[in-house]
């Protein structure tokens, strides 16, 4: 009887904890309401199955408890029951996976008018690069990383000379404009995660991963690293600020370009 009670309490406590929990998700700040829909679908399917399975266990423990003279029936196979369980599970799993395929496709199908924004990770710092007036990011290579050139830009690529470099500072984005986020790591695996944007992706040394989103409200949001990357992992935080267009322009004008950064840092040739 104690086991039955514990099982029922487990279900009640789980449902109550969910309903009263203060750790609910953060208000969304991007266009990815689809991500929330897929989470909600998964939540209801797994939640209902969890409650049903535990209640069924409690019922069986009570109904088929030991009583003198009772004998168990031997029934190793039941085709009909197996068919129902297998098809029910298949439908449930498909309902959880299928929306993800559609949403993933949208997540990585970048609209043509999206502005490229590069995020560069290293132990344990977030840096950023925005295209300059030409709207293009120049080529880069981790092999070109030096103290003067922290993001490893190719100095011979003119497209990169006007790129705006933000080393370890805040990233600003204009509200309502789609951005193509390009992710690069110059040492180990990291993961760019801003909970309010419902967007998250691994950053892999040697390749550029990407996704896109449109910030839908202004505010200051925290960037978290979501991949264990060494002792500083938990302190690897960054900040992204979503601004109105005018505030964004004012901020952008204060940032330094790659050319300015090189001029400030490279030893001047003696003449
Ligand atoms: Cu970077 Cu964890």
UniProtKB/TrEMBL annotation:
InterPro entries: CcO_II, CcO_II-like_C, Copper_CuA, Cupredoxin, Cyt_c_oxidase_su2_TM_sf. This is cytochrome-c oxidase. The keyword Cell division does not apply. It is a multi-pass membrane protein. SUPFAM superfamilies: Cupredoxins (SSF49503), Cytochrome c oxidase subunit II-like, transmembrane region (SSF81464). One of its GO terms (cellular component) is membrane. GO terms for molecular function: copper ion binding; cytochrome-c oxidase activity.
């Amino acid at each position: 009887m104690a086991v039955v009670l514990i099982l029922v309490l487990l279900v009640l406590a789980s449902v109550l904890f969910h309903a009263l929990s203060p750790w609910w998700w953060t208000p969304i700040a991007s266009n990815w309401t689809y991500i929330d829909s897929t989470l909600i679908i998964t939540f209801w399917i797994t939640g209902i199955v969890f409650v049903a399975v535990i209640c069924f266990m409690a019922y069986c423990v009570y109904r088929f408890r030991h009583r003198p003279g009772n004998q168990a029936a031997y029934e190793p196979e039941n085709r009909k029951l197996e068919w129902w369980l297998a098809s029910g599970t298949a439908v449930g799993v498909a309902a959880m996976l299928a929306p993800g395929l559609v949403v993933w496709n949208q997540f990585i199908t970048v609209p043509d008018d999206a502005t490229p924004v590069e995020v560069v990770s290293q132990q344990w710092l977030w840096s950023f690069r925005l295209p300059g007036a030409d709207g293009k990011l120049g080529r880069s290579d981790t092999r070109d990383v030096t103290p003067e050139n922290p993001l490893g830009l190719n100095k011979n690529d003119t497209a990169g000379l006007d790129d705006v470099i933000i080393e370890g500072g805040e990233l600003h984005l204009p509200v309502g404009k789609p951005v193509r986020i390009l992710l690069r790591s110059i040492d180990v695996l990291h993961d760019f995660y801003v909970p309010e944007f419902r967007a998250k992706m691994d950053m892999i040394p040697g390749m550029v991963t990407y996704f896109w989103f449109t910030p839908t409200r202004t505010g200051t949001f925290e960037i978290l690293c979501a991949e264990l990357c060494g002792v500083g992992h938990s302190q690897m935080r960054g900040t992204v600020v979503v601004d109105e267009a005018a505030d964004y322009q004012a901020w952008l004008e204060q940032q330094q370009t790659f050319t300015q950064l090189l001029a400030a840092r490279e030893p001047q040739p003696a003449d």
